[in-house]
Design brief:
single chain; 389 residues; alpha/beta; Aspartate Aminotransferase, domain 1; Aspartate Aminotransferase, domain 2; 7-stranded mixed sheet; 3-stranded antiparallel sheet; 14 helices; 12 strands; globular
């Protein structure tokens, strides 16, 4: 499988979850689209772009189980979270729920909009290691009050790689009239999605991760009864457009000003190409999940620790707690152990402080280009480095 990617062959790359990696065939499609754009930029942006966006939207909507009318493209999930949160009419009486596993960028956006409105952010502590997904449901619902306006929750947590039990949580919050904003940055391509059935008011996901589209491709799903009030972060020409051939939602989100749309337009190619590598998306997802479990088992065995979560709570990533580290000043990307793994052993893998220094977790990703030997190399390196860090 490695031959389909441009990844440096001298690096053991176990961090697909951070920024993904686009296959050569997908990048070739993006380059083709860029050439098409530059041959006649006005024709492309004014006459050809909207139909191309609609084609990409239709392919994506089928993949994630959504009405195309509910899908808008955004550059990344962080932009999707910001678009929703900054569109809400909040005041000092509102409470906004979030778990302690929430991605830092999204949590920052929540704190920012809450601060502007004087609203209260309520953080729900979810432990890791974790006995069962029921514990997440119980803790989230226990934090709900009559002032709760919104829950911001990961579908797959970034630091700890857990799949959260959204079906139960969203159904109960909907019953109470409370909206859910799902940060699904990792979910598309990791496991099947059916967003119309899920029932969340808002869902945003990245396509440069497990779908393997180029960077700059993500989407925002907004349920029909919430669509009118959601505006893009960038207000542009669509805000006062008088056209009636397209929805206000698409008119505003599809044109954020001059931008490079080729990552988004490459999404159909990514969906088709990835499925071709393993005989369909169900097989891609199964293989990645099973490899992540094997990697987790190997690391837990070498580190002599119990499994920190049940198998069904994992997708294509797995995190394991490490022994407490020595005090350090954070580097550009994190723990000095992460730098040592990279510079001394050519292994790219993230180590996150969890829940805070000196406690930490190591998270591995599994993509089709990985094999069990990659994780054996990591386990050997950890055996040598952990006593020093």
């Amino acid at each position: 499988m490695k031959e389909h990617w441009l990844l440096d062959p001298t690096i053991t790359f176990l961090n697909h979850g951070s920024f993904g990696a686009a296959p050569k065939a997908v990048l070739a499609k993006q380059n083709e689209l860029r050439t098409q754009l530059e041959r006649e930029p006005v024709r492309f942006m004014v006459r050809e772009l909207e139909p191309l966006l609609d084609q990409a939207r239709a392919a994506l909507a089928e993949f994630v189980g959504a009405d195309p009318a509910a899908i808008a493209f955004v550059p990344n999930a962080t932009a999707g979270v910001n678009a929703v949160l900054r569109s809400l009419d909040l005041d000092r009486h509102d409470e906004l729920l979030v778990t302690t596993h929430e991605y830092n960028a999204s949590r920052n956006a929540l704190e920012y909009v809450a601060g502007l409105a004087g609203a209260k952010v309520v953080a729900v502590d979810v432990p890791f290691p974790l006995r069962s997904s029921d514990e997440i449901v119980e803790r989230v619902l226990a934090a709900v009050t009559d002032r709760t306006r919104l829950l911001l929750i990961d579908h797959v947590t970034s630091q700890t790689g857990l799949i959260f039990p959204l079906v139960k949580v969203i159904a109960e919050l909907n019953r109470r009239g409370i909206d859910t904003l799902v940060d699904g940055a990792h979910a598309p391509g990791m496991f099947p999605l059916d967003l119309d059935t899920l029932g969340a008011a808002y869902y945003t996901g990245n396509l440069h991760k497990w779908v393997c589209a180029p960077k700059g491709a993500a989407f925002l799903y907004v349920r029909e009864n919430r669509r009118r009030g959601i505006r893009p972060v960038v207000i542009s020409h669509g805000a006062n457009a008088t056209r009636t051939d397209r929805s206000r939602f698409h008119l505003e989100f599809d044109w954020p000003g001059t931008f490079d749309p080729t990552a988004i337009l490459s999404v159909p190619t990514a969906l088709t190409f990835m499925a071709s590598l393993a005989g369909g998306w169900p097989e891609v997802m199964r293989r990645n999940h099973e490899l992540a479990l094997r990697a987790r088992d190997l690391l837990c065995d070498r580190l002599a620790i119990a499994h920190p979560a049940l198998d069904e709570m994992l997708g294509s990533m797995a995190a394991v707690p490490l022994a407490e580290g020595k005090p350090y000043v954070p580097t550009l990307y994190g723990d000095p152990l992460q730098d040592a793994l990279f510079y001394d052993y050519s292994i790219e893998v993230p180590i996150h402080p969890w829940p805070h220094q000196p406690k930490r977790v190591l998270r591995v990703s599994a993509q089709l280009y990985n094999e069990i030997g990659d994780y054996e190399k990591l386990a050997d390196a950890l055996g040598e480095l952990l006593p020093k860090f």
